[in-house]
Amino acid sequence: MRKIIFAMSVSVDGFVETASGDLSWASPDPELQQHVIGRESTIDTHLYGRRLYETMYPYWLKAGEDPSATKFDIEYAQIWKERRKIVFSKTLAQVGGNCQLFRGNISEEMHKLKAQPGKDMFIGGPNLASTFMKRGLIDEYWLYVYPIILGSGKPMFPHLGDRINLKLMETHRFGSGVVLLKLSNVQV
In the CATH scheme, what architecture does the domain 4-185 have? Predict the structure, then answer.
């Protein structure tokens, strides 16, 4: 059965972006970039909320064509374009490219998708992930913990109301000091 994996960069104090929306503190170094390229081979679908879609789609659609693009941007843009993307939004009228707009019952749709043949799915962004967490739909959490304290900002885990028990499956320390924690949801 396919898994839904919530993968996110996070500060030591639990924030995914600064209070002003800055993400530059989480820029991956070349080692982490290669890890990101490699992990894409394990998935075939990205799950986005409106806000993340509006950030990712225009950037990665053109990133590989920019004359100043890095090797990583070119390689990742190509992979990203090939991946299926499902966008969960009640406000968007349409989505572009290899994207599908979804407005129905999230739990029913995810159970159907998980039962279909294919690779795993990554969910991005704490808002949509919170909705999935409340419904018990996330199988694994991949936290890329950066050695920085932001002090405030957007929390990775908004108020959920209930505890979620996790089991540590794996850790990996990158040369930059970023630590990947792979955790499984013991209730799924």
Answer: 3-Layer(aba) Sandwich (3.40)
